[in-house]
Specification:
Elements (H helix, E strand, L loop, with lengths): L3 E10 L2 E11 L4 E5 L6 H9 L6 E6 L2 E2 L5 H4 L1 E4 L11 H10 L5 H15 L14 H13 L5 E5 L7 H18 L2 E6 L2 H7 L2 E6 L2 E6 L1 H6 L4 H6 L6 E8 L2 E4 L2 E3 L7 E7 L5 E4 L5 E10 L3 E7 L4 E7 L9 E5 L6 E4 L11
Parallel strand pairs: 3-8, 3-9, 6-7, 7-8
Antiparallel strand pairs: 1-2, 1-4, 4-5, 9-10, 11-12, 11-14, 12-13, 14-20, 15-19, 16-17, 16-19, 17-18
Helix pairs in contact: 3-4, 3-5, 4-5
The protein binds adenosine-5'-diphosphate (ADP).
The site of adenosine-5'-diphosphate (ADP) has 10 residues, from helix 1.
Length: about 350
Amino acid sequence: MARVDLKGISKRYGSSVALAPTTLAIEDGEFLVLLGPSGCGKSTLLRIVAGLLEPSAGELWLDGELASERTPRERDVALVFQNYALYPHKSVAKNLAFPLEVRGLSRASIEQRVRETAALLGLEALLERKPGELSGGQMQRVALGRALVREPRLFLFDEPLSNLDAATRAELRREIASLHARLAITTLYVTHDQVEALSLGARVALMRQGAIEQVGAPLEVFRRPLNTFVATFLGSPPMNLVPVSINSGRYTLGGLSHLGAPVDQGALVLGVRPHQIQLGPASARALPARIESIERLGARALLRLALREAELSVEVDGASDFERGAGVSVAWPPSELHWFDAHTGARVELSR
Ligand code: ADP
């Protein structure tokens, strides 16, 4: 197991910044997810920790030891990629044994560790097959096994589930979570998939354009996003954002004046998640809206509503009998409103 400390680690390619100076601690046994859109610097950070990429500046510490000079093997990290990178001519058993052979373990202990790992991952029936005879999910299971077999002190995952179909992804997600619960190996996991991030991470670090925007427990990041990027990256459909101008602490929406703005004057963005919006019958005193479209998804349905100044996404129970074109009224619990600065996008807390 290992504690990882990044201190001002950065990476540049010429004048372009792949990773801005980043300071981040991953606790011993923690599962930390790096989440963000393609190109935001997740893999760069992961590869620097693995020792595959040299940082332009900063220090990497592993268990209180400066790791910058250590080779990937000396760092004792195991990597699992999107492309399983198995040896195609070796059987599953030989693929699992290989990392132990290169470390010079005895034949008996190699056999025992391969057996244990195969049992842990349900690979016993596949041990004699070649990778070409496996499904994508099975290949990634073997890749997981090959990473696990030598009990590394640090697990690094780079989009390990991206090539798999939805059902296999969900199954392996549960598997990875349960392995971590049992083995508590420090894990750094890169993904662009918010479901993986929220379900696997003890903490999630959200990245944009080479910088970490927010780090926190999944629910904390979801419930209290520090800016509009985090607010809209997490959640599907994303949080509704509506620019409003505030006068004497009131704002206008749907032709009605509302109390409850966090400042007296200024331009803000109001945020509300689609599942927090409550719909009622049209009424002169409530916020009026019209249903523009309905997308039925079984257990839930997604509506697009037109207000006078804005459109809103709303998530409702799939059995609701709303109709396109109908008038409704819109409400939300005041505690579920988020406010952001219209210029910087930074969160503005309600102080009153
Ligand atoms: P992510 O993993 O989040 O998709 P990466 O860490 O791979 O993003 O890349 C971060 C940024 O660095 C991207 O803009 C990418 O184009 C750039 N980058 C990555 N590798 C190189 C390289 N070898 N030369 C120049 N730019 C690179």
